[in-house]
Design brief:
The complex is a heterodimer of chains A (388) and B (199). Chain A is α/β, with parallel strands linked by helices and 388 residues long. Chain A has helices at 138-151, 165-176, 195-209, 226-240, 243-249, 269-284, 287-299, 302-307, 311-314, 335-347, 371-387, and strands at 20-24, 31-32, 38-39, 42-49, 59-63, 90-91, 96-97, 102-106, 121-122, 127-128, 159-163, 183-187, 321-327, 352-357. In chain A, helix 10 (335-347) links the parallel strand 13 and strand 14. In chain A, helix 3 (195-209) runs antiparallel to helix 7 (287-299). The longest helix of chain A is centred in the C-terminal third of the chain and has 17 residues, at 371-387. Chain B has helices at 3-11, 27-36, 47-55, 65-68, 92-102, 116-124, 149-158, 185-188; strands spanning 17-21, 39-44, 60-62, 77-83, 103-111, 161-170, 179-180, 191-198. In chain B, 44% of the residues are buried. The chains are: A alpha/beta (388), B alpha/beta (199). The A-B interface holds A 321, 323, 339, 342-343, 346-347, 349, 351-358, 372, 375-376, 378-380, 382-383, 386 and B 41, 47, 50-51, 53-57, 59-63, 68, 71-73, 76.
């Protein structure tokens, strides 16, 4: 997903929020991962806004996408220029109304924004894990989130909501813990990565790993593989946009010049933009986390994990109500994938709503302020809340 | 609410499961849910109307009714409703067969092409007729089927459907108001509503 989005006009801000931490799975009680490796202790960074009601039935878990973090809404301090990544959706009077719901978002396992990941200190060596960090899966991320919610005393979720990689987590939640999840909102996502999505992730990983500074992932005490990570980001960023979005935003316009430079400077605006996005990204993201998280996304296949290869069987144990949303210009997770999901849910007799929103901005559309999306989510949550 | 929808709503038993094909902005389903505790689903092709449905708390899928109907298990609804859409369907026979597979009963409504004003227009002017229920010209109409009340009864008996209930309705002043037609319905009704099931 792209850089943080500005405030939406609808609703108010949640105000100040803070980054909280929870540490668990202390040895010898490490978390057993899908790969059978053991990991612990594990810290999750999380954010929590709104109040849990006395019945405890108004809690929503928001799952972030590839490069997001626990900071979903509001600001950390008063002169913070950048609110959380989904500030347009979460707040009083917004699509996810914090006057009604208590909303929690945790940085994913394997991330680099406060949760345990490859840049964390390996207790066995006293140095960052690097590639000694075990490969984690979407299922492992969800298991870790479950531990956090148990710690917070949350026994039922009104909804699990996520887009893209966050949508995979939301779907996983609904089949892994069907008793806990009353509804699932899956935006611009899929139950399994296509070859196209895996291909782009692999190109990104190769860019990182071929950086001369990569040093087999052990770069924390020296120069970092910034060029490779920036390149991975540039590639990724193109897949989050669309032909039309790029044509409108950049066309063939030149950047700060009247004519071609006849060298390999950034002549075109789109080149300059991508270089900027790449250089900004490396300031906040760890290259190893990029490898681990993209791998988790590529490995994910709800059909294999829960349905012996069948999407239909994959949702056989699900109980949640579903809202599935796709966007017309999303070519990373195209509408046919959402329709496949919907078909499986429908054939299982589950309560499912589906809307394909007309949008020019590609995969990123789920993050951008969009009154239609806010309205959909708000209406859906209100229904689930009423129907109990 | 549209008068034909009011009649349909009156036919639906409380607490039943309903699928509304071409549900628009979910008016009928919303009403059935609130007034009759119905568990309803809709299918609608327009994104804007789908969004309106979800916003008001109606469960809906965006898609084509001919496609979407296929995924539902047999007899998974008490009623399947197809209101004012049959005249726009490319393969009505196939669709009605699917509706009867998915629903225990099917409610169908459509404009009556044998209304006296339509007959008269064709007889006197010789042009393809237009009226309030069928306001389009031949070249821009979505209504590709010409159906009369008599036609539908004939269809039902020929394809093994039982007509459990029917209403001939006259709505001279727009869609919100109307009344039942008992005398010469095929000539005087502007549209018909049928409740059918498999024989």
């Amino acid at each position: 997903m792209s850089e943080y989005i500005e405030h939406g006009r609808q609703g108010r801000s949640v105000g100040l929020t803070e980054k909280l931490f929870y540490t668990f799975a202390e040895p010898p009680g490490q978390l057993i991962l899908e790969s059978t490796a053991r990991l612990g202790p594990i810290t999750l960074a999380y954010e929590m806004v709104g109040e849990i009601n006395s019945a405890g039935d108004n809690v929503i878990l928001v799952c972030h996408a590839l490069t997001g973090d626990s900071h979903m809404a509001g600001c950390y301090h008063h002169d913070d220029p950048r609110p959380g990544w989904w500030d347009s959706m979460i707040g009083p009077g917004k699509g996810i109304d914090t006057d009604r719901y208590c909303v929690i978002c945790a940085n994913i396992l394997g991330g680099c924004m406060g949760s345990t990941g490859p840049s964390s200190i390996n207790p066995a060596t006293g140095k960052p894990y690097g590639l000694a960090f075990p490969v984690v899966t979407i299922g492992d991320m969800v298991k870790a989130q479950r531990a956090l919610l148990d710690h917070l005393g949350v026994r039922s979720l009104l909804a699990v909501i996520g887009g893209s990689l966050g949508g995979m987590q939301a779907l996983e939640w609904s089949v892994r813990y069907p008793e806990l999840v009353r509804s699932c909102v899956a935006l611009a996502t899929t139950s399994h990565h296509s070859a196209l999505a895996i291909a782009f992730n692999e190109i990104g990983r190769q860019a990182v790993m071929s950086d001369p500074n990569f040093n087999k992932g052990d770069y924390y005490s020296g120069p970092r593989p910034d060029l490779g990570l920036a390149l991975a980001r540039m590639i990724g960023h193109v897949t989050y946009l669309s032909d039309e979005a790029m044509r409108q935003k950049f066309g063939r316009r030149l950047q700060d010049r009247q004519d071609f430079s006849f060298n390999f400077d950034a002549d075109f605006q789109v080149e300059s933009y991508l270089r900027y996005q790449g250089s900004k990204f490396v300031q906040r993201f760890d290259a190893n986390s990029y490898l681990y998280i993209t791998k988790a996304a590529d490995y994910y296949d709800l059909r294999q994990q829960h349905g012996h290869g069948s999407e239909l069987e994959g949702f056989a144990g699900a109980k949640a109500k579903y809202l599935v949303v796709s966007f017309t210009s999303d070519w990373l997770y195209p509408t046919y994938q959402s329709r496949g999901l919907v078909k499986a849910l429908k054939k299982n007799g589950l309560d499912v709503s589906f809307c394909e929103i007309e949008a020019q901005c590609g995969h990123d559309a789920f993050l951008l302020p969009n009154p239609r999306l806010s309205g959909l989510i708000g209406g859906f949550l209100a229904r689930v809340s009423e129907e109990g | 609410m549209r008068y034909d929808l009011e009649i349909i709503a009156a036919w639906v038993k409380p607490g039943s499961r309903v699928l509304d094909l071409g549900c628009g902005s979910g008016e009928l389903l919303d009403y059935l849910k609130k007034q009759k505790q119905v568990r309803g689903s809709g299918i609608e092709s327009s994104e804007a109307q789908v969004a309106e449905c979800i916003e008001k708390g109606v469960q809906v899928l965006q898609g084509d009714i001919n496609e979407e109907i296929r995924d539902y298990p047999d007899q998974s609804f008490d009623y399947v409703i197809l209101s004012q859409t049959l005249q726009q369907v490319y393969q009505p026979q196939e669709l009605i067969r699917e509706l009867l597979r998915v629903g225990k009963q099917v409610i169908v409504s459509f404009p009556n092409f044998s209304h006296w004003s339509i007959r008269l227009q064709l007889l006197v002017n010789g042009y393809a007729p237009k009226n309030r229920q069928l306001p389009y010209d031949w070249y821009d109409t979505p209504n590709i089927r010409v159906i009369t009340l008599a036609d539908f009864r004939h269809f039902a008996s020929r394809f093994g459907c039982r007509i459990d209930r029917e209403a001939a309705v006259k709505s001279p002043k727009g869609e919100e108001a109307g009344r039942m037609v008992r005398f010469l319905p095929n000539l005087r009704a502007t549209y018909g509503i049928f409740l059918i099931s498999r024989r």
